Structures are given as structure tokens and as C-alpha cells.
Amino acid sequence: MTLATRRLGPLTVSAIGLGCMNLSHAYGVPPSEDVGARLLNHALDLGISLIDTAALYGFGNNERLIGKAILHRRAEFTLASKCVLDVIDGKRGLDGSPEAITRTVNGSLERLGTDHIDLVYMHRLDKRVPVEESMGALVRLKEAGKIGAIGLSEMSAATIRRAHAVHPIAAVQSEYSPVVRNPEIAVLETCRALGIGLVAFSPVARGLLAGAVHDDHYVPGDIRLHMPRFVDPNLSHNLAATRAFDALASELGCTPAQLSLAWVLAQGAHVVPIPGTTSIAHLDENVGAAALTLTPDIIARIDALFAGTIRGPRYAAPMQAQIDTEIFPDEELA
């Protein structure tokens, strides 16, 4: 299958990528290694050529899974991973020091079973370390041939410009969907102006716009248990707000997830969504969104549906403290 392609700086990737986090943790019980391997290979069969992981995902197990499952098809995809967030003393930790970045990337290379990662992001901004120092470590890793392009995740336009002045940034990851619009404050246009790709994670709003959330009875370990907008009383209100979106998808003859992904794709030729899934059927469904073209009227209707309607912060306070992305003046914070 042939998917349309888009540019992330110097990289050419499929217009829809695959976020791999939930193959190892985050949303319910992760699938078995065999099921995860089948899904990863099916993604490549569909023409998906951007595979996104991180050192933190599954405390390294996500990278190990990718290494076992698809590294024999290395020429078919762009491999992206992340540093700064990593496992420190057995727990999630943030360290943007050059030493930690080097250690994390070397660990990723070992777990993936490769000597080169195409794109490495700073997963979050460590505000204790000047971004220029963190970038210096990534530049040295690139000069050593261990990584290709450099990216940033959940960072503000000001931080992006500081990092880009050290070395060109290929891609910036940010949460972006019809219900999460923070990149529109400054990051979306900054990326466009600097020739940087915007990689949209959680483009179906962590299942909210994919018919996957019905109540807050999540299994233990689901990260949405700690996200204020995904638990009551906020969740009941937010689910009511999505009903008109679901109805619009039905009117257009597509699924809510496809409508959400098509909306993200319509926000600019430099935008690449990376939905995650543990289901091959949902993976097929997601790829189908690339064939949809939304008219300006439909985009305006979607925008109107969610103008100020979603309640609750994106993150709980400890997580929000690690987020550098701009916030709206009236945005709820934990």
C-alpha cells in the first residue's frame, strides 16, 4: 500500500505514523509481544514509515519490542526515539544533562539492536539545564553517527527557536487534536516558518475522539486515571461534548477517529499525526483517514464544536510542571 508522504525537516515519512507507547504501557493492559510484533509488521505493510518510540516507554521494553519485531525491515521506516525522560533509579525521571542524554541514547541503541536512530527527540525540557547544553549532546551524538535528525517534544516556540539556533530541528512533537489546540498559540506557525515538522501525538485525544472512552472505569495503570479531563465530573461533560462530533463523522460516512485524524492532517502540510493502537482493525481504520479531504465548512464545524467546551486540565500538576508548551489564558491547570 502507498501512503502519501510529508516532510519532517530532512526526513520524508508517511503522512500518518505510528505511536508505539501503548504497545508497552499507558492505556490498559498492553498486548503480548507476539501481538505487538504483528501490529508493527502490519503497520509497515500498510505503508506507515514513521515508527515512534521512547526510552521511557515500558521502561525500555517498547524499544526492545521494536528491535525484535521489525529491525529486519529497517530500510522501510524512519525510527524515532526520545531522551531526557528515562528510567532513573527504577522510576520515571527527568534529566537533560549532556551525560544523561548520551547515556539514554546509547541505551536505546542497545535495546533497539541498531547503531543508528533516525530521529531523537528531547522528550521534555529539563528546566534545570539550558536547552543549548542539551542540544550540544545531541549534536555530538549526530556527529558520531549515532543519530540522524534532532527533535523536541512539548516545547514552546521560544525554546524551539533557541534549540534551532544551535542545530536545525527536524520535528517538534506536541499533543494536537480537535480538542487540544495548544500548538495553535505559537508552535504550529513557528514550525512552519522554520521548516520544522509538527508531529501530533494523541491525535484522537487519547481515545476520546475514537469512541474508546465511555466512563472512567479504567484498568489499574491507565494514565488517564491521573488526567483530570478523563475522570468525573469532567469526563461526563466531555463525553457529552463529543456526541455531536460522533454524529458529524456518521454524517460524513467515516469513523470519529478518521475524522479527527483528517482534521489534524488538514492543519498544514508539515503536520504528521502519530496515533497509537493495539488493534490491527483500528490501525487499518486510522490509515483510511489519509484518503479523506475535509472542506473548510466541515473544519469550521469541528472547530465550533469544541470552542471552550472541554473541561479539566490536560495533565495533573506533576506532569504539567514538565510541559513547556504554551497555555491559553483561560486554560485550566491542575
Automatic annotation (TrEMBL):
<dbReference type="InterPro" id="IPR023210">
    <property type="entry name" value="NADP_OxRdtase_dom"/>
</dbReference>
<dbReference type="InterPro" id="IPR050791">
    <property type="entry name" value="Aldo-Keto_reductase"/>
</dbReference>
<keyword id="KW-0560">Oxidoreductase</keyword>
<dbReference type="InterPro" id="IPR036812">
    <property type="entry name" value="NAD(P)_OxRdtase_dom_sf"/>
</dbReference>
<feature type="domain" description="NADP-dependent oxidoreductase">
    <location>
        <begin position="15"/>
        <end position="305"/>
    </location>
</feature>
<dbReference type="Pfam" id="PF00248">
    <property type="entry name" value="Aldo_ket_red"/>
</dbReference>
<protein>
    <submittedName>
        <fullName>Aldo/keto reductase</fullName>
    </submittedName>
</protein>
